[in-house]
Each structure stands twice: as C-alpha cells, then as structure tokens.
Amino acid sequence: xxxxFERCYRAVDSRxxxxxxxxxxxxxxxxxxxxxxxxxxxxxxxxxxFFPSAAAAQGAGLRACRRCRPDAAPGSxxxxxxxxxxxxxxxxxxxxxxxxxxxxxLASRLGYTERHLHRMLSAEMGAGPLALxxxxxxxxxxxxxxxxxxxxxxxxxxxxxxxxxxFNDTLREVYASAPSDLRAARGRRQAAIGAGTIALRLAYRxxxxxxxxxxxxxxxxxxxxxxxxxxxxxxxxxxxxxxxxVALTPADGHVAATLRLTDLRDLAPAVARCRRLLDxxxxxxxxxxxxxxDPALAPAVAAEPGVRVPRAVDGFEMAVRAVxxxxxxxxxxxxxxxxxxxxxxxxxxxxxxxxxxxxxxPHDQPGGAAGMGPLRGFLSAEELLGLPDAAxxxxxxxxxxxxxxxxAVVDGALDLAPGVxxxxxxxxxxxxxxxxxxxxxxxxxxxxxxxxxxxxxxxxVRRGAAALGLPDTRKTLDGYAxxxxxxxxxxxxxxxxxx
Length: 499
What we know:
Mean pLDDT: 91
Distance between the termini: 35 Å
Structural class: alpha+beta
Largest sheet: 5 strands, antiparallel
Low-confidence stretches: 356-373
Shape: globular
Strand content: 5-15%
C-alpha cells in the first residue's frame, strides 16, 4: 500500500480495521504509534506521520500505544503474498531466520548481499532486517512476560535477545515501560497456565469464515498429527529448536491460540506458522470484492464472506500429502497417510524399547495441557526415507516419487520454506519424477502461499464449477477464470466448497 497521506488519514479517522497491519500511525505530539483502528481521538493532521512497519515507527523514536497494541496487529497482506525478495525476506524474518542465523544467514537464503538486502528492505519497510527482527523480538518478549512466570533473563534469551541489557533497553524504548512493569500490569490479562504453555490472540482482518477452515482441515486430519475437536483445531508442530503442540480456536476478532513448546525460542516461528496455516494475514475485503464481481460466485461470497486458503505449517508435509493425494479421493489419501504414520510410530516405539531414543517424537513432547493430546509433527524427510516399502501402501512408482522428494529435501536440492522463490521451487518440483502440474500447483497454493492458482484439472474443482453453471473443462475454465485474478486460489476453495 502506498503511503498516500489522505488515504491513510481517512482510514485512521474512520478507525477502519481493514487497514490494521497495512500501515502504522505515528503521532509526533505524544510520541506513540498506533493501529489505524485505534479508538483514541483522531490526532491532528500536522501531528501525524505514517509508517510501513512497526520497526520503522520504532526507528523514528516512537513507542507502541498501550491501548491498541499495534505490535500485535495482523501482518501486512502484501508481505504475505508477494513473491519478490522483500516479501520473501519478511516471511523468513517472521519465521525467526535472523534470530537463528543472523542477517548473513537471511541474505544467503535469499541470494543477495547483506548491503543490498538492507537497502531493499529499508526502501520499502523503512527499516533494515535487524530492526525488523528487533521489533518481532520485542513482541515475543511481551507475550512471554504477560503469559508465563519465567524469569526476565530466561525471557530475554527465549525472545532472541543477545543480552539482558539489550532486552531491557529495547522494551523500555518500544513500550516506555520496564519489563517488570509490563508483568505487573498483566493482572487484567490471562494468567500463565502452565510450564511451557503460552496463550495468546492471533489477530486477523474481518471477516473470517472459520467454519470453512475447520471443515477443510477436519476432513484431512491425520491421527497423531492433527484433529478438529469441539470447534478447535489441534496439531503437533516441528519447530527449529524442538517440538510443540497448538490449539487454535476461532473467536470474534481473533483466533485464540494455546501453544505448548519444548523450547520457548520457537514462539515466534510457531506463531508465524499458525498464522500462515489459517491465512490470517489475508485481505478478505479485496479478495471477496474481486471474486464477487462474478455473478456466478457472488451468492457464495455473500453467504460465506471471508473464506481463506488453508495453508501449511510444514512444506514437506504438504508435499507428501499432495503426492499421496494424486488421482485419489481425500478419504483414500488420508487412509494411506495414516498407514504411513502408524508404521513409523511402531518402528519408533521398537527403537525406544531397544534404547535408541528418536528425538522430536511423542515422548519428547511437553506434558499435558488441558484438552490437548499427545500430538506430534509430521514425518521428516529423513524419517520417510527410513521407512520400509511395506509402509507406503501405494504403487511402487508413487512410493519412489515420495522417496525422490524426500531425498531432494534432505540434499538441499528442494526448499519448501516460507521464503523460497516460488517459481524456482515449482521448477524443481516439476523436475522430480512423478510430480506433475497439479501437484506443483497444489503446493504453490498451500505450501508456498501463491494467491493466484487455479487447479483446473482437479475433479472436485470442475464439479464445483459445473454446480455453479460455470465452464467445467480445463481449457474453458482456465479462460473463464482470468476474471478472478489475482485471487484464483480463493476461487478454487469456493469451487471445492460448491462441489
């Protein structure tokens, strides 16, 4: 979004929630920055500046508003969907790459020099990669202060700070409060609920059709990996420093998230992956306006506003699901994947009985938050390669496709992380034996976050098109769908629902 003063000021004056995360409002007379929807009195024009990121506002010497908590606003939909270097960098920063590998590691992942990367981010975000990561650390630290009873030194290092002094200085600068003052003020907020367990709210731009997300995920749930129960989605996570579980419950204006982590350094990447899974940084108003311009889809949009694209917390997991799901029903694919997982679990238990613990599996999970079972993340590429032929329960060619996929991931020839170059990832996927356009496009939509994918060869998509009176052959549907650009992925979800 361009920082057009008049457009931004009108959004602030109307307290429009749709613009939260698009930009931040700096008020020079008070020294604070806010969301556009902040309920405070609209500041005078001469006292207002607009910033493309919270880090840019902090860099200008402003502190976060205590009333609207702009640091917890939804992410910008630009960086959620854009495939250029800045968009990829923002997704990797959100996933904690700077905290784990520093700016050199981020630049290496993107294929640019540190200087050039800093220049690109500063031009568009108003801040470089270190400042952007610092803003995220401050938000992570605030969450841990308010939702756990950890000591401040533990929180400092869990949030990614290099020292307690840096932690203290940053929080005083960003929140105009000492860490101890933030903890003292948490009495009106939810109290800590157990060791290693964190409860927080994931903001989104309304509307959100939560039931569509839960329906989609429930049909594809795998035993021991994820499940939908009583309106809450539960799943296990594989994270950079360990494992975890999350329970996600859609509510009015936010998704309530309860995270249980083996290592609190994984809080930021866990939050980023949950947001990505539920597509919480989307701009539903813009998407629905484009899709509803088609008279055939307008009634569906009116009846179900805010339908999102269910994405993924693990690119390799989504790739395995896509390959197994080739030319079979969702039910059949789920049955095959369940067999694969159960075989691995049996082998894991046998190895444990022999004294060979395998890290990152159920017995390494933190124990029992109420209502959360012993879920674990999906198989890793290395674990899949260790399974015997009998575990796969599918034709030999498809089994070898899965192994070829896993080898490519293990060898580094294929990257399915959030900040990957989408075109390059699709090209490498198509080069693998047994992976065709449907599989590559499905992964581009769900694992890589491409908002403009139409699965016109998918049988259910074509059935949905027919049910709505639309062209239902691949060629005719491709031509007709040009009117849905750049949101064809969202139209695909609606066609699936129509089927």
